[in-house]
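Marked as duplicate of an earlier ticket. Keeping the data here for the record.
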Amino acid sequence: MHDARLLQDIQAVVLDMDGVLWRGDEPFPGLEPFFDYLHDQDFPFLLATNNSTKTVETYVKRLNGFGFRAAEDNVITSAVATAEYLRAFYPRGTRVFLVGEVGLQGVMEAAGFVPALVDVEVVVAGLDRALTYDKLKTAAYLINDGARFIGTNGDRTFPMPEGLAPGAGTILAALQACTGQTPFVIGKPEPYMFDLALQRLQVPAARTLMIGDRLETDILGAQRAGLRTALVCSGVTTPDILAASDIQPDLVFEDLRALFEAWVGIREQS
């Protein structure tokens, strides 16, 4: 852990979820006091995840079921950010082909985009645990025919209780290998998701803390966007991985509970 006094000037928090709040279906201990504190202090926060498989409503229900108080405005998924990006550049009714699950499908349809197999302008690919060869083949054909290739996020792995499973980046890599086309990626560490988070929070980047468990997405992306960064070693990044990396966060903690204890201590001293 570096100098925890860096927490004194923080006015808003962005948190990853998988590996920070929970692993698989198991929440980490000590999270309820953290969220109670955010609410009691009227402290703005945003939960930003590269996971495109679940809907915002599902995340809110899960958070509230674990005892955290969260609303839909507190959650951004890479699927939500992708839909917001497409809305800025494509009209309602644009035909898209989706490689993804309900979290991506629902938000894209709600934004007015039409799932299609022909005359497709955009192929959007994210994590799809029901991926078939035919779906991969169709996406490749469409990209080769000129459809724009957009990825929700580039995470190569996805943390599960058993270990690290293939992530959305694995699917993007397969399509890139087949088509020779590099996807335009929306999620962390790319800037769009951080820009969207800062727009919602209405707090300067330098006064906003990103809390995450992945160096190459949470920490690197936040640093590029000008946010302060705190790594928790409860997810993907272990102390050994951190020691060998060129990406170094401002702060390092064992988990969110340890960060919270340090943060409250610093705020009480100021």
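See parent ticket for discussion. The radius of gyration is 19 Å.
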